[in-house]
Request: fold
Amino acid sequence: MKIALLGNPNTGKSSVFNLLTGLRQQVGNFPGVTVEKKFGNIKVNGEEHTIIDFPGVYSIYPRTKDEEVVYNVLTDSECEEYPNISLYVADAANLERNLLFFSQLYDLKIPLILVLNMWDLATKRGINIEIEELQSYFPDVPIIVTNARVGMGKERLIEAIKNYKHQERNQSIIQNFNPSEKEDVKTQAFEATERFKKLKEISAKTEEIIQSKSDNYSKKIDKFLVHPFWGYFIFVGILLVVFQFIFSFASIPMDFIDGSFASISGWISNALPPGMLNDLISQGIIPGIGGVVVFIPQIALLFFFISIMEESGYLARVVFIMDRIMRPLGLNGKSIVPLMSSAACAIPGVMSTRTIADWKERMITILVAPLMSCSARIPVYTLLISIVIPKTKILGILNLQGLVLFGLYFIGLLSALFVSLIFKQFLKTKGKGFLLLELPGYKNPRWSNIAINIVEKVKVFVLDAGKIILAISIILWALASFGPGDKMKEVENSLRNKSDFIKLPKVEQQHYLASVKLEASYIGIMGKTIEPVIKPLGYDWKIGISLITSFAAREVFVGSLATIYAVHEDGEENTKLIEKLRNEKNKNGEKVYSLASGVSLMIFYVFAMQCMATLAVVKRETNSWKWPIIQIIYMGILAYTGAFVTFQMLN
Amino acid sequence: MWYELSFLLLVYLYMSSSLAEIHPGKKVIVSGIDNSHITTKLLELGFIAGTVIEVIFSAPFRDPIAIELNGSVISLRLDEASLIQVEKMVNS
Reply:
């Protein structure tokens, strides 16, 4: 049996879902659309039932992309997702508004169970609901009371599902309701007014307001959090703490993951007989998987903080105070969440734009999100910074290297805002953007909800980005392992015949061999082919190779350089590689990694769209290749000119 | 008679305005919503004629504003608020 969870936003619907399914949740997509479908199984009387969590909506008529799925499923009884029973979760403290969508479902003859959630909050606000009275208006709908946030009502919910009996529904709120006119705003407005007339009568008879108390606790906190000065001050402060925390703590598990995958690779390459399969697994697949897993700590940590902000009700306030600032840029207050997420990874960032109702505001947010510096850029930044930026202190306290890193993040953010402004002029749209956002009361976050949210976001990253990163890693491995004709064999043989090569220790021999083979491979040829193009930026063909391999994930840059320069990677420190790169000279005896070329490379990485996984997600979210292509082009132009100007100025 | 009518008109003009013009801390009664692409959305949120609402605070730059309505807090941009016609309450 299929059980749908329906209701308004902020009614604790996801708490009810978590209460019923616990951690046994899955995420999929509704067929044909890219809207996330959360579902889980429960056992009632030994029978397995699937619970599907629908996006929270105020009515059957959709406002955002997310909400369309509710309309599409519920108006099509042939649909695969069409529920056998629907649990309608209502906020008991705001019955009238919550009954609007309920009454539409009621008129659509959808089998319903009414869940009056947040009963404690209603009591606190001095509201009492006469359930028997309410029942008389909807005789065939079982009504139950829950406080899902504190885990109250699970047995009652299961009992109600178990005992549900389908009854003929003869009455309705509005006669002959037919929501087929999705675009006819006038009829909808008339309908909503008519419904509220009826619902007002119902709530007048069923609701007893003992003593109306508004949420003074939230009002007091809001005095600070949306204050014209303190509001921004606190938000910036929170961001600083969050990012500081992520930088200092995520590196510990990341180093561990890096090390573990390196040893697994080493172990496999020793355990399996040498040959192509061995190479594919130890140099293609395992490092590919490692390249996905290594980002998990950062993404999990960032979403830990974002979930806390969301659960507590603070995130809605951030949207509220940022809206006026973002609007002139063509963005929405809600864009702040995708932009923040993109500081970890653009993939969950792009996906979280679905809550933005306006097409133009959503598109601009998607287009600029990858300009925010993501976790994959950090290894590139830190490597380049330690090569070309001296370890001096400015004004005695500020570390120059740290300052440059901060500067790169800042350039990313600034360019995202600036580019939005430009897209705002070009994108045309019919309607005007709107906000219409509910600011929920402040609550203590529920850790179980946060944990579930993190698991979900990480899953999305691993599944969506993971398979693409892995696939490209394998393609790149092939391009790096094979070359045209017998070229690779030839260079290997000629190297083996050199006398100073034979004198080298075995490990270094291997490194040199890998280096010359890479040069002769397809990817080496590609690097050399693009050398004339990247020369004005200060790069040679070796950097060219690394730029190409970055398309799997930007941090592959570091590993590629290590292979080309035939040095052993020694984890996070990369001391040997840094030393080697510092001393690298070109034909004219000039340093390859000078201040000019180093900074030029950093700027290139700030701007360039080098992430296939993000491009794939943008394609999926926008349903067209047009937008990812625009992204590659505009970011490519930014990267090339930015790096060019930087190099020419500093050189 | 003209005198009385114009007096009533003045009182009406004084008492009615759009929600966008209301300052934080003031309670008003919704009297109607102008036609636009978001009319239905505003109605669905509960901006129904006769409902008492209060502008509780505004964001920096006075936009968007936060409105308490039946115990929940809804934020609207001034553009959206200007679609909502309200009447001032005598005692607020």
Chain B has one domain: 2-88. The CA atoms of residues 27 and 87 of chain B lie 9 Å apart. Chain B touches chain A through 33 residues (CB under 8 Å). Strands of chain B lie at 16-18, 27-33, 52-58, 65-69, 72-76, 84-88.
